[in-house]
Write a structure and sequence with these properties.
heterodimer, A: 380 residues, 2 domains, seven-stranded mixed sheet, 11 strands, globular, B: 365 residues, Rossmann fold, eight-stranded mixed sheet, four-stranded antiparallel sheet, 12 strands, 21% strand
């Protein structure tokens, strides 16, 4: 099997703010195999978005502080990269689709300029005019590189800013660029792409904007696409359209995807593997079918059972008592133990078994951070 | 049949757009948003009517009109048989005691500078003179009914979690023991685990106090659990209405079918079941004649674009109203056939080019 695209090892992230230290991620480990879709599901405040943003190092540091861990993207530890080296992995390595497309698209630029910018950066990197593309397999020596001189940055910027007016005029006149941008718009099934090119983001509907975001993300030909709640702001029929589109694209483009959502249904639709997060901990990890049909962590079971799936004449919904803990005061041991129906004295001391692959195997399989996994099945 | 608590008759709410200077100069036709366009429905005593629809379908506007927070453009609202469409002044205030609203945004609808007893007690104060001690006593009686500790009456809204704030909104609506509570997206800001708690609480309160609910939501799963009857709204009109099991298990309107098929189900075995309706929700500004769903409907025939379908019942399916010319045929398609693409009925011209997929091109290279 090929090496995983992304390996996250024991990642812990804190937010240090005036009110205290919030442990957003605690010892999270997982990997994504090439071409697979990993779904991360959890409630508000479980650390899903922190995880998504920490991979391309988009977290604002401070207040965020990466306490420990490694994020190996195609073998490169992104946590060891200097700030000036980060653009090398963003866009053409890891690209992102965010929740709210209106906040992620620039309102002052036409759709063409925004897609063309991403395409141009990729082209510059591919032709070696700008550092960026990471050749597969080639070891990346991030320690020995000298930081660029000031003069280099002026003549060859690491990240070109949005195209200047002159450059935009040149790009617009460039027939091959136009063809390529149109191709990406068609890829995301946009009707009448010629007209859309000349519009501004506010002139498009939510579903269209999210398609544009996906087009921009894919135009960098990334090895990993991170989708952070990409359909949560959309209406349900539009969500179905965008999810169908993403599924079709998965088979066409073959990018690995980290798909983050609070919606168990959306994850069921999209993911091959699923990780369940609770209070910054990854509590269960495994192939989708195994996790959904045979959950091994009491929290996963409770979460799946809380989805309303009946009429009121069928009796009340099983619900979890208590609330999600405050991230500055995560309970000791297993974070779920105060709410857990299976809790035993050991649970308040020991955080549960680490989600590690079996001895001699690289594949994780279905794992849960709970000593009493066997009793979960008997839970109501 | 139980008696209707609220009945709307041909209710309309239009929002005229301010014409721009060029519109005025060119003497263009006035543009009007038809947010609610001829809605007749009933909420019966002690039952929940679920109102489902996507954003822009006019469901919140309808709720606001029923609560008399918006003045209806046309139509009538009957409450316990009495016309309340044009109540004013004291009469309106007295009527308000019976109708309360839980607003959509639990953060925006709670004043951050008021304490819990002030927030929950505000409707009580509006309805009658109470001393501070009486008010506090009443509020601490109400709080446990929604699952909040009575000791929290001196807290501020920001000290609650999302679920706690929603309970607070609910307590405020309950404080007057109204007959009708309009729940506007009561759980859309909540996580599933908290949502289950709130939904259970809603059902429990209803069985204890006999409230009627008008539950407005885009979340079909939540509505299914709380509602006795549902109405599906699309672009200001009721597309389908009836008993919850009937509408959700045997939908007769293509839009209801589309909505249900688009629902992501947390079941690993039922993947790849969705089909899509193409296109987006069109604008409510000066809608064209005919069926509002015609532009996206896979069953569309010429008649749909010319003649507006009226709500009717099909023979053999009483109490389920549907506004579709082809409801008989649509209803016959079994739910299993919804897996995959929407089936095409004979007689509906559906060219491939009209679909939302112009080409299957892949990225070069």
């Amino acid at each position: 099997m090929a090496a995983p695209v992304l390996e996250v090892k024991n990642l812990s992230v804190d937010y240090v703010v005036g009110a205290g230290t919030f442990h957003a991620l605690s010892e999270v480990s997982f990997e994504i195999e090439p071409g697979r879709v990993l779904g991360i599901v959890g409630e508000t405040g479980s650390g899903k978005s922190t995880l998504a943003h920490s991979i391309p190092r988009l977290l604002p540091e401070p207040p965020a502080k990466i306490r420990s861990g490694e994020i190996l993207f195609r073998g490169i530890d992104t946590l060891k990269l200097e700030k000036w080296q980060l653009p090398r992995i963003r866009g053409t390595g890891v690209s992102m689709v965010f929740q709210e497309p209106l906040n992620s698209l620039n309102p002052a630029y036409r759709i063409f300029d925004q897609i063309a910018e991403a395409v141009r950066i990729r082209q510059l990197r591919e032709t070696g005019k700008m550092p960026g593309i990471l050749p597969a397999g080639e070891p990346f020596d991030y320690s020995k590189r000298d930081p660029p001189k000031a003069s280099d940055v002026i003549t060859k910027p690491l990240v070109p800013s949005l195209p200047s007016k002159r450059l935009r005029t040149i790009l617009r006149a460039d027939k091959s660029m136009r063809r390529e941008v149109l191709e990406y718009l068609r890829l995301v099934r946009i009707n009448d792409p010629e007209t859309i090119l000349t519009l501004y983001p506010h002139e498009l509907s939510g579903g269209m904007r999210q398609r544009i975001m996906i087009a921009i993300a894919l135009s960098g030909r990334p090895s990993l696409l991170i989708a952070d709640e990409p359909t949560s702001a959309l209406d349900i029929t539009i969500q179905a359209q965008v999810l169908t589109l993403m599924k079709e694209l998965m088979s066409e483009v073959r990018t690995s995807i980290l798909f983050i959502s609070h919606d168990l249904g959306v994850i069921a639709e999209m993911a091959d593997d699923v990780g369940v997060m609770y209070a910054g901990h990854l509590v269960e990890f495994g192939p989708l079918e195994d996790v959904y049909e045979n959950p091994r962590h009491p929290y996963t079971k409770a979460l799946l059972r809380a989805v309303p799936n009946r009429y009121k004449t069928d009796g009340s919904l099983p619900s979890l008592r208590g609330t999600v803990p405050n991230l500055s005061r995560i309970p000791s041991g297993c974070p779920f133990h105060p709410r857990c129906p299976l809790a035993k004295p050991v649970c308040s001391k020991d955080p549960g078994p680490a989600l590690l692959p079996a001895e001699g195997s690289r594949v994780r399989g279905h794992l849960a951070a709970c000593y009493f996994s066997k009793d979960v099945e008997a839970l109501p | 049949m139980t008696e209707a608590l609220v009945e709307t008759i041909d209710l309309e709410k239009h929002f005229p757009l301010t014409p721009s200077l060029s519109d005025t100069l060119a003497r263009r036709e006035k543009r009007v948003i038809h947010a609610v366009d001829g809605v007749s429905l009933q909420v019966r005593r002690g039952e929940t009517l679920g109102l489902i629809g996507e954003s822009g379908s006019g469901k919140t506007t309808l709720g606001w009109v029923i609560a008399r927070l918006y003045e209806p453009t046309r139509g009538r609202i009957l409450f316990s048989g009495k016309d309340i469409t044009h109540l004013e002044g004291r009469e309106l205030l007295a009527w308000r005691r019976q109708v309360q609203v839980v607003f959509q945004d639990p953060i925006g609808s709670l004043d951050p500078r008021m304490r819990v007893w002030q927030i929950v007690g505000e409707p009580l104060l509006a309805q009658g003179k109470l001393s501070r001690a009486e008010l506090r006593a009443k509020v601490s009686e109400v709080l446990p009914t929604v699952g909040l500790p009575a000791g929290s009456i001196d807290l501020y809204p920001h000290e609650f979690s999302g679920g706690g704030r929603q309970r607070l909104s609910l307590a405020r609506a309950l404080s007057l023991r109204p007959k009708l509570i309009i729940l506007d997206e009561p759980t859309s800001a909540l996580d599933v685990a908290v949502q289950a708690q709130i939904l259970n609480r809603l059902v429990d309160l209803q069985s204890r106090f006999g409230f009627s609910y008008l539950m407005i939501s885009h979340n079909v799963a939540a509505v299914r659990f709380v509602a006795d009857r549902v109405a599906v709204m699309y672009l200001g009109k009721i597309a389908e209405a009836g008993p919850v099991r009937g509408v959700l298990e045997r939908p007769l309107h293509p839009y209801t079918k589309a909505l249900l098929a688009a629902l992501p189900v947390p079941d690993a075995r039922r993947r790849a079941m969705r089909y899509r309706v193409s296109g987006e929700v069109p604008t409510l500004i000066n809608p064209p004649p005919g069926c509002r769903f015609a532009g996206r409907c896979p069953f569309v025939i010429d008649r749909c674009r010319e003649e507006e379908p009226l709500l009717r019942v099909l023979p053999g399916i009483p109490d389920q109203w549907v506004a579709c010319h082809r409801a008989e045929e649509v209803g016959e398609i079994p739910p299993e056939e919804l897996l995959g693409e929407m089936p095409t009925l004979p007689g509906s011209p559906r060219s491939e080019s009209g679909n939302s997929r112009p080409s299957e091109s892949t990225v070069a290279g």
